[in-house]
Amino acid sequence: MFAARRSLRTLATTSARLSTRHLVLPTLPRVARPTRAFSASPRAFKSGSSDVSLSQKLAEELKYEKEANESDEPEFLHTFTSQGIWQIADKPGDNEIVLTRQFGNENIRVVFSVADLQNQDPNEFDEELEEGEKAEDEEPQSEILRAVATITKARYAGDSLVYTSDGRGQPSAGGALELDMTVQNGQFLVENVTFYTDAKLGQDTSVAADWQRRGLYIGPEFNTLDVSLQEQFEKFLEERDIGEGLAFFIPDYAHYKEQKEYVQWLENVKTFVDA
């Protein structure tokens, strides 16, 4: 009986193998299926859709500013330079303006910045009104700009500072005074008077020198000094033409400089957008 079953299983297996073998079809040649091509690189655009309108608006603003402002040297600047006291160092694109002059054996430098015009807080200097007092009765507050005056006792040889020697290899220049001030309503208001024993430190504008100055004693607050001493300092500055005339000139020139920089900014941005 077991033998009969084995015979039947062998026959069934053989038949299945034969039937499977006969059902195998010949392999057809492969044909490449069409595929869609993709590119990873972005599409190139010559300009954005808003470029033209932005350029036109910049051109309108530029035209308005040039027509509204005089191209010739303003009268206040002509009057100031014709006095021949101060030299103006004004580098296009820079915030700072540097005024320099000589007074006896002193080299004097006054630095101020147009950035102070942009940092004005109209509420910063408001005082509380007394009950019943109207705001329109107050005198309007003028802009406040910072200025730093540095007075160094040294001499120049060409464009280089020369420090005289006392015969012992030590500089005999009298050091430097640095006065931190604010300018408002045609007046200089001194905040601090710092003295540097190293005259070079008063003139050096490098980052290293600035860092070194920060670690030094800046002197007392000016308004804590005896009133008569404050008055003598004010006379000291006025004698060096750091007085009312210069205090009116500084904000005028700051506005003049800011206007020039704004027009140049408009031109630069328009050129960039149009490129």
TrEMBL record:
InterPro entries: MAM33 (IPR003428), MAM33_sf (IPR036561)
Entries under SUPFAM superfamilies matching the protein: Mitochondrial glycoprotein MAM33-like (SSF54529)
Region annotation (Disordered) ranges: 120-141
Superkingdom per UniProt: Eukaryota
Compositional bias per record (Acidic residues), positions renumbered to this chain: 123-141
Gene3D superfamilies named in the record: Mitochondrial glycoprotein
An example Gene Ontology CC term for this record: mitochondrial matrix
GO BP terms in the entry: cytosolic ribosome assembly
Protein name: F-box domain-containing protein
Species this chain originates from: Mycena chlorophos
